[in-house]
Specification:
By secondary structure, the protein is α/β, with parallel strands linked by helices. About 35% of the residues lie in helices and about 15% in strands. It folds into 2 domains: about 200 residues, Alpha/Beta hydrolase fold, catalytic domain (Rossmann fold, 3-Layer(aba) Sandwich), CATH 3.40.50.1820; about 70 residues, no CATH class. Strand 1 and strand 2 form a beta hairpin. The model has no long low-confidence stretch (mean pLDDT about 95). Keywords: Aminopeptidase, Hydrolase, Protease. InterPro entries: AB_hydrolase_1, AB_hydrolase_fold, AB_hydrolase_sf.
Length: about 290
């Protein structure tokens, strides 16, 4: 695979940075460009997974407000619609008709929005653990907790808010009605700062926390899309919020949930100090894409 090329595309309120691995002219109808997208995770989280697809062009990007895609409009939050429009702009800048798309976490929600709004741009979408609360029996609690984490970030800073977020990700099964009445976790217990440094530019806690989980997907548009929409979850995270949400989305679409190896970040190969099962994960992704 040729050296990585970094490119940019202008969007209202941000300049979106994206990376191209391989020669775009090598893509064809049977093997389109593969885009790997997260949110708020930037392109750096897909370095290992991208390396397993050296036989086709691979594109990664930094969502607006994350990594190199700094916001210029001063907006405090980002919506899935904005992210979906940015994805469309990147695809158009590539000069290709459509792509295969793997979306992880918030990137899965944004990718589902892209397909519902611009279905002709995607051949196959694999949406891995989209954290959308609307399909959950405890949706009201999840949305309330998401608002509380956002509000904690705005009032107390990163440490206390991130501690609450980590606690949420470790919760298995539906959230009890009394969840927010429980004592707040100690940031120090997670190695997080207890002092507020005054910054409020965290893309997860400040920009996407409320808008992502509360987004209402257009299931009718997704079901009518000409391409395939595959919903996936990790075998180790099925009982966590994102795994449960994936199962709920698949059920609403009337499709079978595809189980991938490992956990929510199963494709990671040491990025951010986290290890999944990237080789097995890539093999599972390749299998799904080959069935298109």
């Amino acid at each position: 695979m040729s050296d990585l090329q970094t490119r940019t595309v202008d969007a209202p309120g941000a300049t979106i940075h994206y990376d191209v691995r391989g020669d775009l002219s090598d893509a064809d109808a049977a093997r389109p460009v593969l885009m790997l997208v997260g949110s708020p995770m930037d392109a750096s989280g897909f370095a290992t997974l991208a390396g397993h697809f050296a036989d086709r062009p691979v594109v990664t990007y930094d969502p607006r407000g994350a990594g190199r895609s700094v916001r210029t409009d001063g907006a405090s939050e980002t919506t899935p619609e904005e992210h979906a429009d940015d994805l469309r702009r990147v695809i158009e800048a590539l000069g290709v008709d459509r792509v295969d798309l793997f979306g992880s976490s918030g990137g899965a929600v944004n990718s589902l929005v892209l397909v519902s709004r611009h279905p002709q741009r995607v051949r196959t979408l694999v949406a891995h653990e989209p954290p959308t609360a609307e399909v959950l029996p405890d949706r009201e609690q999840v949305e309330a907790v998401s608002r509380d984490i956002h509000d904690t970030y705005q009032s107390r800073g990163m440490g206390p808010a991130m501690a609450k977020f980590i606690k949420l990700t470790q919760q298995t099964g539906p959230l009890p009605d009394s969840y927010l009445d429980e004592p707040a976790p100690d940031p120090a217990a997670y190695g997080l700062p207890t002092e507020d440094d005054g910054s409020r530019d965290d893309p997860l806690l400040g920009q996407n926390m409320r808008t992502c989980s509360a987004y209402r997907l257009d299931f009718g548009a997704l079901a009518a899309a000409p391409g395939r929409v595959v919903i996936a979850a990790g075998e180790e995270s099925a009982d966590e919020m994102t795994g449960r949400a994936a199962a709920g989305v698949a059920k609403r679409l009337g499709t079978e949930l595809v189980v991938f190896p490992s956990h929510h970040g199963g494709y990671l190969g040491g990025e951010f100090g986290m290890e999944g099962k990237p080789e097995a994960f890539a093999a599972a992704l390749r299998k799904v894409l080959s069935e298109s």
